[in-house]
Amino acid sequence: MGRMHLLTPGPVALADPIREAQAQEMIYHRGPEIKALISDIVPRLKKDFNADHVFLIGGSGTAGIEMGFACLTSPGEKALVLANGTFGDKLVSCAKVYCNTTSASLPLGKGWSLERAREHIDRAAAEGATVFAMVYNETSTGVLNDVPAICRYAKSKRMITIVDAVSAWAAAPLDIKQMGVDFAATGSQKAMGAAPGIAIAALTDEMMKRAEGIAARSFYLDMKKFKKEMDSNQTPTTPPCSVLFSVKAAMDYIDARGGFDAHRKRHEAAAEKSRKFVREIGYQVFSEPGFYSPTITGFILENADEVRRRLREEHNLVTARDFGELKGRFFRICHIGNFTDEDLEYAFDAIRKVLGK
Fold first, then answer.
1. What is the pLDDT of residues 71-90, one digit of tens each?
2. Which of 204, 261, 283, 294 has a Cα-to-Cα distance from 277 of 20 to 30 A?
3. DSSP state letter for 299
4. Residues 137-150 as b or e (16 or more Cβ within 10 Å = b)
5. How far is Cα 338 from Cα 246, in angstroms, rounded to an integer?
6. Same topology for domains 5-12+259-355 and 16-254, yes or no?
7. Largest separation between any pair of C-alpha atoms in the chain
8. Could you give the CA distance from residue 268 to residue 265 in angstroms, rounded to a whole number?
9. SS3 state of residue 140
10. Does residue 173 carry a pLDDT above 90?
11. Is pLDDT above 70 for 1?
């Protein structure tokens, strides 16, 4: 069997320098080497997020999201969560563990605009909600929600804003201060293009002060512990050092190709190319215009499971499964992370062959 072509929303395929970085000799997690590594990574992340604090958490992106609820909310506090897909539903479930949560949903494929969100935010705020959360990029359907306008409005209602940016950051803009985002979380294995195993949490000074006045409801995810250790370029518990090697290498790789701005433009161009391809083979892009994802392009395909099987067996192309009510009849083209134009063309050609297009 030849090389498998990974066209999934994460973990993504690793470019050679990123994969090879993980083969370095192991280091002591309390020695000068780890401090040098973290002191290289964190300032660069702070700059791109425009964040006052960035925490590196051993775990998936979900660990980062849960940190936000566990450390920034109090028992019984009211929260509003907007959902429009599988990961929005997961965010609702996470919020319910920590808050008195209400939610609002849109039909699959539809995106959240301020016009659609305003009435829900107004109602929640009038009922005493002080926490607002939503997914930036809904991976299950390929929808990019209007987080900037919505979060700025929620903040105007004196709500704190928590954003699942797992599949959005590094592909879509995310200046947390400019966008009204108090706390955002992502994962190393998504658009950054590193190996899985690190959640990245970005937050403002205001939120850190809030966390310092709240009893954390997680031992492992306590922000106060993270701040104390990361102020001296350490982590509270043993980090996955090899993954941190890959994170630094991924950032170096991005910098070598023009930096994060150029990295985002590559995602935008690939998304446009993928939408054009979907239309050329006779299908309709599932997400509505104005809410296209920079990382996922999906379309209804009734025999999606069979197509995925054939792509893997006949072309060594691994594509992503679908979810919920779309299960078995939705196909996602993923353009996220370290993909190249050649990778996309290979995938397009394989899909054409399997579909007879």
1. 999 999 999 999 999 999 99
2. 261
3. E
4. bbbbbbbbbbbbbb
5. 13
6. no
7. 61
8. 5
9. coil
10. yes
11. no
- Which stretch of DSSP H or E encloses residue 134? strand 131-135
- Residue 176 sits at φ, ψ, to 5 deg, of -65, -35
Rounded Cα gap, residues 62 and 68, in angstroms? 10
Environment class of 325 (CB within 10 Å of its CB; exposed 0-12, middle 13-18, buried 19+) = exposed
Tokens coding 140: 């299950």
Distance of alpha carbon 42 from alpha carbon 53, whole angstroms: 9
Mean pLDDT, the chain, whole residue set: 97
pLDDT tens digits, one per residue of 264-308: 999 999 999 999 999 999 999 999 999 999 999 999 999 999 999
- Tens digits of residue pLDDT in 200-250: 999 999 999 999 999 999 999 999 999 999 999 999 999 999 999 999 999
Kindly indicate whether the domain formed by 5-12+259-355 is annotated with CATH number 3.90.1150.10: yes
Classify domain 16-254 by CATH architecture: 3-Layer(aba) Sandwich (3.40)
CB atoms within 10 A of CB 189: 28
Residue 82 near residue 120 (C-beta atoms within 8 A): yes
Would you list the domain boundaries of the chain?
5-12+259-355, 16-254
Taking residues 329-345, report their average pLDDT.
96
Q: Helix, strand or coil for residue 237? A: coil
Per-residue 3-state assignment (H helix, E strand, C coil) for 153-181? HHHHCCCEEEEECCCCECCECCCHHHHCC
End-to-end CA, the chain: 25
Residue 205: the pLDDT is 98
